[in-house]
């Protein structure tokens, strides 16, 4: 997760924050505006239109 830029904030008095559980699963909150940048520039309302958000993860955790 640190390679992708999602570094959790450390709490006061805690040396390391664990973001994964025993199975290696994690839960993060990513602001939608950081994923869908084009929405900021679009000024019209879109009604009754199907929209899809597809997130594709690389097989390794290194930046390309």
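^ Assign residues to that structure.
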């Amino acid at each position: 997760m640190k390679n992708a830029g999602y570094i959790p904030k450390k709490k006061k008095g805690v040396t390391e924050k664990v973001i994964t559980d025993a199975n290696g699963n994690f839960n993060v909150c990513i602001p939608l505006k950081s994923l869908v940048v084009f929405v900021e520039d679009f000024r019209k309302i879109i009604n009754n239109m199907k929209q899809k958000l597809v997130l594709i993860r690389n097989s390794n955790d290194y930046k390309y």
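Residues 32-35 form the longest helix (4 residues).
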